[in-house]
Amino acid sequence: MKERINKLLEQKKYAELGKLLKDMEPVDIILLLEDASDEELLCLYRILPKELAAEVFVEMDGDVQEHLIQAFSDRELKDFMDEIFLDDAVDIIEEMPANVVKRILRHTAPDMRKVINEVLKYPKDCAGSIMTIEYVDLKKTMTVDEAFQRIRKTGVDKETIYTCYVTAEDRKLIGLVSVRTLLLSDKASKIEDIMETSYIYVETLEDKEEVGKKFDKYGFLAIPVVDKEHRLVGIVTFDDAMDVIKEEAKEDFEIMAAMSPSEDSYFKTSVWKHAKNRIFWLLFLMLSATVTGAIITKYEAAFAAIPLLVSFVPMIMGTGGNCGSQSSTMVIRGLAVDEIRLKDFPKVIFKEARIALIVGSCLAIVNGVRIWLFYHNLTIALVLGLTLMGTILLAKCLGCVLPMIAKKINLDPAIMAAPLISTLVDSCSLIIYFNIAMWIMGL
């Protein structure tokens, strides 16, 4: 396909090329445009039908979007702004430099420019910042037939028409009705008789992460957004919610890897910024690990008496860190998707403690057999067995407790992930190990 498009482009068969591109999906067109030169990119984009061009544009990388906007004529820019939906326009404007934003707004219709400015006033992380005002609203006194007339009249410019929102004269949201319900109802039926009055909604200042969770929980295509007076001001659609979920997941992964979150992609982030985002946690964890060295120094008498004890330190520390990481990962995920709540604290502790006993027993038995086969020393096997039981129990408990404490004090639970858990468990496991060794061996 790619070779065929390049050949048509070289032969300047633009009509045939336009027919070929018209039948392609926007994401496939973007893949083709990624490897195109600047001239080919502009040429291919201009061949696309207006509606398809708008769909392709909003999915493009920010740098490519900026390049195209700079290359657009004033007429092309105006036509483009007339085609895209409000929420997409807001997203583009937020990504562009100031000089490009001024040019975009200059060629935007006054009504749309006013609404864009209103949406941009909302805090970046709230529902209002990701909503669109392109929805179909109905009145409760309308008949089904009148409702369809309104949908046909106004729906062509709306982002979604599957769900229609019923508002009172003061714009207060009083219900909603799906197109499916309208299709299955009698034409003379009143909207107030068939609308749903029990519905899920969000407020303009509600955290957009919570909005994403509601989409995940209820499987909606759109959620209405209301202000403090319960007036309908917009809707959040499924595609925007998915962007939020992906953004939050990326942020959690970075935090769990002991890095400060970055808004840009990997290649767009400079080397200096990558280093800056990582170095604070690395310094903190490195300095924290000095506690481990101090513990080893304190118990050097045990090492001197039985040098063999040293060889098991990496295994104990590694096992403890791995067990703690497993628990923290499960709890962080559970908190993120509301599967685990703070009130579940005792249940989580009890569950992880039982898991620790099973896992610890299995590992202790296997390790005891290994030590007997290699060293024929039951005393060390007993020391290691008890140490593993204690370390795993502690690691599992820390792994579930710390993320829940973070949630309680309004921190991101992802902070309490593998690197931090491993550092804490390393120190604690050594204290357990040497104390058990000195107690059993009488050192």
UniProtKB/TrEMBL annotation:
Cellular component, GO annotation: plasma membrane
Protein's UniProt keywords contain tRNA-binding: no
A Pfam short name: CBS
UniProt subcellular location: Cell membrane; Membrane
Gene3D superfamilies: CBS-domain, MgtE N-terminal domain-like, SLC41 divalent cation transporters, integral membrane domain
PROSITE patterns: CBS
Protein name: Magnesium transporter MgtE
